[in-house]
Design a protein that fits this description.
The protein is mainly β and 497 residues long.
Length: 497
């Protein structure tokens, strides 16, 4: 399997000592659970965490992609990897932030060359992925034209691997790929020597784009494979991108639309929109008769017309001990709902195990960003950033923790906490179960909360601990007793020592 932990479902499945320290992909695992195991992160120790004033790491351009961490790079140095909208990729020495190597892979695209979009310039948005075995970083960059190109860079010196870059516009499929209307926001995925790259539309929903997953064979990069949604729209645009259980690829799609229509139209028939799709490794299409391989909201057409994407947050895979079934996919929508799905049988049209309305949805209550999942002594939780979650068991705030429990699994809101922010949460645990802490950034401050109760663990520290303005889609990572967070063009480090 290409990439460490590519098939792990997280939630404490392995003891701390067997876990790699490297952060090779978005939210640490292919399950996208956002769980980081580090024995140093007790709640007592975390209450004293401080930003490291000696750590200096600057990039050029805004950073939407999550940083990555590679243990034992060339010369034995641990590396922090960032990628920006200027198509600048940097490997920093994780100890102090010195630049080890830096490469601009191609000039970024300008909004003037596309009919819509809200990031300018537009370069690398989706989080790259690392293949630890070959010491290679894979990323998608949008460059002048515009065009999408997939690059493979050596982690030793930033050089481009043979056979790359690959032009995604050359992909063949049931639809036409056009980089001027397709955007790449979702995190990339590695599975069995294949790189999977998700695509959706641009802000503004212009043009007859489709949701795409493009597969790049690592041993023959030009032999692209693909899946495209039957309907126009139905983009795969969430920051968490694609998830995997090691066997299949799971994708969340957004609003579909009528041919030639805008973002508030709907096609006459369902065509993979407002859905969670289970795709095989060869990306063969699925049909409406394959109910175990997709879930779609029964009111998909109304969600289309209201632009209330189920795909606003990527799928998260997790397990809940004691429940039957016990392996799940959770989907979170701009309609304000959480959809709990049986991972073995997604259920087809309207076939969720439970739908829980968390917010009123719409502009003020849409659930966008990535969720995290973990099992603690008090139960199994999925935590997400929301606005005005309803039915909070304890507290109030912009974070909401859903508890999944019972022999017949059901969801309820266990706690809410925290100030309003635009980043996604992640979770630390000392051993995969105990001392869980939910971390995210709001108001320029790193905040930590007890994963079982929502009680504050770290309230942001002093003014000197501020990270400033953060870009949406961003999320922190944890490695070796430290938390790293990219904010704008600066990478910050927090330390327990």
């Amino acid at each position: 399997m290409a990439g460490a932990d590519a098939g792990s479902s997280g939630t404490g499945a392995a003891p701390a000592m067997s876990r790699p320290v490297s952060v090779l992909q978005y939210h640490n695992h292919a399950s996208r659970d956002g769980l980081y195991i580090d024995a140093a992160f007790t709640r007592d120790a975390a209450a004293k965490i401080k930003k490291d004033p000696s750590f200096k790491a600057m990039m050029t351009g805004d950073t939407y992609a999550q940083p990555l961490y590679f243990e034992a790079g060339q010369g034995g140095k641990d590396l922090l990897i960032t990628a920006t909208e200027q198509n600048e990729v940097t490997a920093f020495d994780a100890a102090g932030g010195a630049v080890v190597w830096r490469k601009v892979v191609a000039p970024p695209a300008q909004n003037a060359t596309s009919p819509c979009g809200n990031i300018n310039p537009l370069g690398i948005t989706g989080t790259p992925v690392i293949d630890a075995q070959s010491r290679t970083l894979y990323l998608d960059a949008i460059t002048t034209g515009p065009k999408n190109q997939v690059f493979a860079l050596s982690l030793d010196d930033g050089s481009v691997r043979q056979g790359f870059p690959v032009d995604i516009d050359n992909v063949k499929g049931s639809a036409t790929f056009n980089s001027s209307i397709h955007n790449q926001r979702g995190a990339l995925l590695l599975l069995d020597k294949m790189l999977y790259v998700p695509f959706g539309g641009r802000a503004g929903d212009c043009g007859d784009y489709n949701g795409w997953v493009v597969g790049v064979p690592l041993d023959n990069p030009s032999a692209l494979i693909s899946f495209a949604t039957q309907a126009h729209g139905a983009g795969m645009w969430s920051p968490g991108g694609l998830a995997s259980d090691g066997t299949s690829i799971f994708a969340a799609t957004g609003n579909s639309k009528a041919d030639g229509g805008n973002g508030t139209s709907s096609p006459p028939n369902w065509g993979h929109g407002e859905a969670i799709l289970r795709l095989p490794k060869d990306l063969k299409t699925i049909t409406q008769s394959q109910t175990k391989d997709f879930f779609a909201a029964e009111n998909w057409a109304a969600l289309d017309r209201a632009d209330l994407d189920i795909g606003g947050s990527g799928p998260v895979l997790f397990s809940a001990p004691g429940s039957s079934p016990s392996d799940f996919v959770i989907a979170l929508g701009k309609d304000g709902a959480a959809y709990l799905l049986d991972r073995a049988n997604l259920g087809g049209m309207g076939g969720m195990l439970q739908r829980l309305m968390l917010t009123s949805g719409g502009r003020g209550g849409a659930i966008i960003q990535a969720a995290a999942a973990y099992t603690a002594p008090a139960g199994t939780f999925v935590v997400l950033r929301s606005s005005g979650a309803m039915g909070c068991g304890m507290g109030s705030g912009a974070l909401a923790a859903i508890k999944v429990s019972g022999a017949k699994p059901s969801m309820s809101v266990a706690w809410c906490a925290g100030a309003t922010g635009n980043t996604s949460p992640m979770v630390t645990s000392t051993d995969g179960t105990n001392e869980t802490i939910v971390w995210y950034v709001a108001g320029g401050k790193l905040l930590g909360f007890n994963g079982e109760t929502g009680a504050p663990v770290y309230a942001g520290g002093a003014d000197s601990d501020s990270v400033g303005t953060t870009t949406k889609f961003q999320t922190a990572i944890a490695a070796k007793g430290r938390i790293f967070m990219a904010a704008g063009s600066t990478l910050h480090a927090f330390t327990l020592k």
